[in-house]
Inverse folding.
């Protein structure tokens, strides 16, 4: 037991710090993403690959359809994130792509065939099909240079328009009969992007009026995609994403433009700027979901990599609404990895796919429902694992601080060497004046130098009990006294005074590295 005495206080100190930091990190894990919203909760489904789900409102609940290898998984999810009525349908639908579904009937594209599945068998409606989009009322698809529609009453197809450019996508929204077509024409060093808004011609009763939304060059390293529109009579707002790859740096931006279809004026698109509640600009929004809130105002949901807490980053879900010239965002997810394909479940809940392993995803969700919020605050094994992992990582970061101790150890060591060379007898006799000078040099230089390390970074990320006014003076003094107490308790009888000072220096550096080291760099 006597052999262990020097290590008792350091070990107890380490355990106290470890527990304190773990509890602090656990508080961070349990923190709500925003006031009134729950933490992320896993939905009771199964693990799937990275696929694009299709959502459909049925009986006041969302029905989710998930294409898998040789089947389609479907289930209802309530605004309380309860999963009900899970079913599987033996049907192979390639993903990611949009498909039309109603009850047990599906329309989708596979191997360039437009296929209708009636619940029992498949029937090819058309060939050489490149893609499609749909809403509950319309199914519109396209070939290389032709736009067509499906008559659901007879499952026949009808051509709407042929165009000279190659069609890349067709876009509908959930409620309108209008749609957007995106065409591109290849040039020598670029592509010509032509985006057309097609609105039903109510006067003639047939056909569509066409309005050019965008007509511009697209550079080889650019891609205009992800178009969406919100229609209010002749007032139309169009959104799209622009991907750029410049010198290896990939970026995603969202553009917004509003115009009157009969105004005969050019469309003016501006970049949407997303700002979080700390004033930080969020970059590279992906997996965009557009919608309209209960007040008729536009809202956007997307995922991006940003700070989740302190210095911990994750790809999380954000919801944004316009606030003047910027879009104010609120965090919706608290998962620790990568989130994709977010979707609103009514006005009070959201869900998305959350990465949980190599190419494995599960559904997670968050809600404003008070029962869901209370349920999300229960501590889980994952919370404990993340809190302990964060503590271990932060303590390892404290080793960087220990390396800085050379700055305040060196003067004391050099002084001791000089005395040893000049007057070795003073060292051999352990003259108190020499020993006190060595100790004073160690503590004095440390105290002066460490003031610079209590910087903005420290006060931003350290817990409140370590980041109070005057902490740069109080903490070093308290830890010096704790180090002295540890020496007094753990010192062995055969130790020299110089050995005790060395033991003090090691303990003091160890204590500082544990307590303040994790937050200084």
């Amino acid at each position: 037991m006597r052999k262990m005495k020097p290590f008792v206080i350091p070990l107890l100190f380490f355990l106290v710090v470890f527990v304190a930091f773990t509890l602090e990190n656990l508080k961070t894990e349990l923190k709500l993403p925003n006031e009134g919203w729950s933490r992320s909760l896993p939905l009771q489904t199964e693990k799937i690959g990275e696929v694009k789900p299709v959502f459909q409102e049925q009986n006041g609940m969302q029905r989710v359809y998930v294409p898998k290898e040789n089947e389609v998984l479907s289930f209802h999810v309530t605004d309380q994130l309860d999963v009900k009525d899970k079913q599987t349908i033996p049907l192979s639908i390639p993903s990611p792509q949009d498909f039309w579904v109603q009850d047990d009937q599906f329309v989708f594209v596979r191997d360039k065939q437009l296929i209708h599945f009636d619940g029992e068998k498949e029937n090819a409606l058309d060939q050489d099909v490149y893609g499609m989009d749909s809403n509950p009322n319309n199914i519109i698809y396209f070939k290389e240079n032709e736009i067509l529609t499906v008559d659901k009453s007879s499952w026949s197809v009808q051509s709407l328009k042929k165009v000279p450019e190659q069609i890349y996508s067709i876009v509908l929204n959930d409620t309108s009969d209008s749609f957007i077509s995106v065409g591109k024409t290849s040039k020598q060093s670029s592509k010509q992007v032509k985006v057309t808004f097609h609105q039903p011609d109510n006067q003639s009763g047939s056909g569509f009026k066409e309005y050019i939304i965008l007509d511009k060059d697209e550079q080889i390293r650019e891609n205009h995609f992800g178009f969406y529109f919100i229609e209010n009579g002749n007032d139309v707002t169009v959104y799209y994403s622009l991907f750029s790859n410049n010198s290896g740096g990939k970026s995603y931006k969202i553009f917004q433009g509003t115009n009157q279809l009969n105004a005969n004026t050019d469309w003016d698109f501006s970049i949407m700027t997303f700002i979080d509640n700390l004033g930080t600009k969020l970059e590279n929004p992906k997996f965009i979901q557009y919608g309209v809130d209960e007040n008729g105002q536009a809202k956007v949901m997307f995922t991006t990599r940003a700070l989740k807490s302190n210095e911990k980053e994750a790809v999380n879900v954000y919801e944004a609404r316009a606030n003047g010239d910027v879009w104010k965002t609120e965090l919706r997810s608290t998962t620790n990895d990568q989130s994709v394909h977010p979707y609103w479940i009514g006005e009070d809940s959201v869900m998305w796919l959350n990465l949980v392993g190599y190419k494995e995803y599960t559904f997670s969700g968050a809600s404003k429902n008070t029962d869901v919020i209370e349920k999300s605050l229960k501590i889980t094994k994952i919370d404990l694992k993340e809190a302990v992992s964060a503590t271990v990582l932060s303590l390892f970061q404290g080793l960087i601080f220990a390396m800085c101790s050379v700055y305040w150890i060196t003067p004391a060591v050099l002084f001791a060497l000089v005395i040893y060379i000049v007057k070795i007898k003073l060292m051999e006799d352990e003259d108190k004046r020499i020993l006190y000078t060595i100790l004073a040099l160690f503590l004095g230089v440390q105290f002066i130098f460490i003031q610079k390390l209590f910087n903005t970074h420290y006060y931003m990320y350290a817990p409140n009990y370590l980041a109070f006014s005057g902490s740069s003076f109080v903490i070093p003094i308290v830890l010096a006294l704790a180090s002295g107490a540890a020496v007094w308790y753990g010192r062995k009888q055969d130790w020299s005074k110089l050995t005790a000072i060395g033991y003090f220096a090691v303990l003091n550096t160890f204590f500082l590295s544990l307590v303040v080291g994790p937050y200084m760099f």
